[in-house]
Amino acid sequence: MATEPMNASELRGRLQALRGEATARLADAGDEAAVEALRTALLGRSGSLTALLRALGRIDPADRPAIGALANEVRTALDGAIAARLESLRATDRSARLETERLDMTAPGRPRRVGHLHPLMTVERDLREIFHAFGFEVFEGPEIEDDWWNFEALNIPPDHPSRDLWDTLYVAEPGSREAGALRPADDGTILRTHTSPVQIRAMKALSPPIRAIMPGRCFRYEAVDASHNFEFFQVEGLVVDHDTSLADLKGMLTEYARAIYGPETPTRFRPGYYPFTEPSVAFDVACLVCGGPGCPACGRTGWITILGAGMVHPVVLRSGGLDPDEYQGYAFGMGLDRMTLLRYGIPDLRLLMGADLRFLEQFPEGR
Ligand code: DAH
After folding, report:
1. What is the pLDDT of residues 261-305, one digit of tens each?
2. Type and span of the H or E element at 102
3. Is the C or the N end of the chain the one with fewer CB within 10 Å?
4. How are beta strands 210-219 and 137-138 bridged, if at all?
5. Alpha carbon 68 to chain centroid, angstroms
6. Is the pLDDT of residue 5 over 70?
7. Which pLDDT tens digit goes with each residue over 85-129?
8. Phi and psi at residue 67, in whole multiples of 5°?
9. Does an H or E element contain 11, and which?
10. Cα atoms in the 13 Å half-sphere on the side-chain side of 333
């Protein structure tokens, strides 16, 4: 910094030189930090302009007004130049950001992944719709039942051989595993082996005339393979009224088969056996794969059994709190899983209960 003494003309020269030099250095400052450093070097407590302002006190008092005015002018000019440089740096910065962060408002949106119904539920909904048109309501029951609801109420007494038709999953008696002798719970708690117990619940909850379908999940103690699973879905049907006959059953189920498989699909009834119906029938449609001549899908018979049905047994009506001398009814039950396999040509039942999206996403129709 300048050494003393300093006269007026020397100070004027230094002020003007500083202005020129500062303006040039400001133009070179490439970012805000460089500008701030320059501000300190010029205007800070030990900055070069500050030093010159201090020197003002030491020149001839007669020269002070003129030189003082010049010093102020230089200071204002530097303040203005600093502000202008900062602004221009910021503006460049903004346009650079605008360039990199540009939003193309006309670009197409990113597609959102939307889920859809499981194929089993698509088929179930179709059934709900068809039966809705026939005047059926939907009635649901619990997946955990006990021996009475699942068997006894349906005319399947303890130790009766017909129980062998349902391989049941029992709930273990608490403590029996630890005792080393696993045995079924005393209270008879089981996972329902079919939706038929919901018939009893529907009879108790609704009053005749009853027309209801009862969809739901069921469980059986099964060796799992391509056509058996321990967990599967059924749709049960129940109609109870005065003077209901086997002719009503045949008429309704024939119309149902037409609605779901097309009006031309041949159907047939065969005698069947279920403890909860008397008489009982099996209902077949012409094979959906070969249409009649016989193929592996229909066991070379040309027919596929789509449901079991029959006239509700008097014991079952009584379990539901109804008088068999006053009311008659028919019932039917079908497996949703096999219907789904047939409809989509799926070769293995296990695929339905696996959570593999590569499989499930092939059936997007159920929205
Ligand atoms: N509950 C039977 C089963 O799981 C299916 C069934 C057959 C239901 C005949 C019915 C019926 O209501 O009438 O195999």
Report:
1. 999 999 999 999 999 999 999 999 999 888 888 888 888 999 999
2. none
3. C
4. parallel
5. 78
6. no
7. 999 888 888 888 888 888 888 999 888 888 899 999 999 999 999
8. -70, -40
9. helix 8-28
10. 21
Instruction: Return the bridge partners of 330, or none.
Output: 239, 311
- Region label for 14, one of left (φ > 0), alpha (ψ between -120 and 50) or beta (otherwise): alpha
In ligand 1, which atom is closest to the CA atom of 196? 1
**Among candidates 283, 315, 285, 304, which has minimal Cα distance to 196?**
315
198 CA distance to ligand 1 middle (Å): 11
Q: Which residues contact ligand 1 via a Cβ below 6 A?
A: 194, 196, 236, 274, 277, 308-310, 331-333
Q: Is the pLDDT of residue 150 over 60?
A: yes
Q: How confident is the model at residue 2 (pLDDT cuts 50, 70, 90)?
A: very low
Which residues make Cβ contacts (< 8 Å) with residue 109, sequence separation at least 6? none
Q: Which residues contact residue 110 at a Cβ distance below 8 angstroms, ignoring those fewer than 6 apart?
A: none
What distance in angstroms lies between residue 196's CA and the mean position of ligand 1's atoms?
Answer: 6
129-132: long-range pairs with CB below 8 Å, 24+: 130/256, 130/259, 130/260, 131/213, 131/237, 131/256
Yes or no: say if 277 and 331 are a contact pair by the CB < 8 Å rule.
yes
Q: Are 234 and 127 in contact (CB under 8 A)?
A: no
Phi, psi of 118 (to 5 degrees): -65, 145
pLDDT digits (tens, 9 = 90+) for 29-63: 888 899 999 999 999 898 899 988 888 888 888 88
3-state secondary structure 174-227: CCCCCCCCCCECCCCEEECCCCCHHHHHHHHHCCCCEEEEEEEEEECCCCCECC
pLDDT of residue 106: 92
Which residue's alpha carbon is at the smallest distance from atom 6 of ligand 1?
333
